[in-house]
Amino acid sequence: MMNKTDKIYVAGHRGLVGSAIVRNLQAKGYENVIGRTHKELDLKDQAAVRAFFEEERPDVVVLAAAKVGGIHANESAPAEFAYENLQIQCNVIQCCHEFSVKKLLFLGSTCIYPKMAPQPIPEDALLTGPLEVTNEAYAIAKIAGLKMCQFYKKQYGDDFISCMPTNLYGPHDNYDLNGSHVMPAMIRKFHEAKESGAPFVELWGTGTPLREFLYVDDMADACVFLLENYSGEQHVNIGTGKEVTIKQLAETVKDCVGYEGEIKWNRDMPDGTPRKLTDVSKLHELGWRHKVDLLEGVQLAYDWFRENVDTARK
User: 109-113, 221-225, 228-232: which range is least confident on average?
Assistant: First the structure.
């Protein structure tokens, strides 16, 4: 059982995912939530991670720290995506075991599933086929992390659980066009085109792939719900169970931003996975459902971007 006084370490507390989880924990009355910046603690440094656990002795750990990026970033640096994520996970998970952390939540991604997985994707589709090549390195690292949690639970009885969120967006997202995901990239492109009066915005691919998007504060609420209510070995998908085409997403973002030019699709650029919808029936059966729909979420994300535009573009 989680107690309101538990010391909860959120690894990656400044990122899109971690900051939302911190907000949710604090809103629910958890008063002892701690974090460390990358400068304060390099999670790739095994000795430093062990020293941190020795000193702080957290009761609960949320592993939301990871090297992340979109198609371009993953394709250009697969070695770093594999190596750095495996280092972070191995160091943190082993220390959670060594220092008797009573609950660990490991956050993965729905990119762990095979490229041609059945749709919507159930949890048991894992390892049933080849991965999408554009983010294979990241996916393999995340698969290793969730399997480690299962192995530690099986061998030692550790209460280590995993969840796999779908595509996330919201406050503190990455708006750097070289490393961002599709939603923040669109928000920035349409905003800058509106500012400059550009006649069109160019977007990658055909616009036909289907994607599911989850507002990050909904994701955080689901994570805290699982921390409080779930101890199963099986990882749990977190999503909305609803999908839109990339073209529909672009039109939604365009409308929220108020851009009046046209959209041009660069068909020479990759689309990525043709369809990726999560089966969230397990999460629904446990008693949790999303609250923020896409239109409301995009507007919230754009409002945050406008308020933080100078720092968000870096």
Answer: 109-113
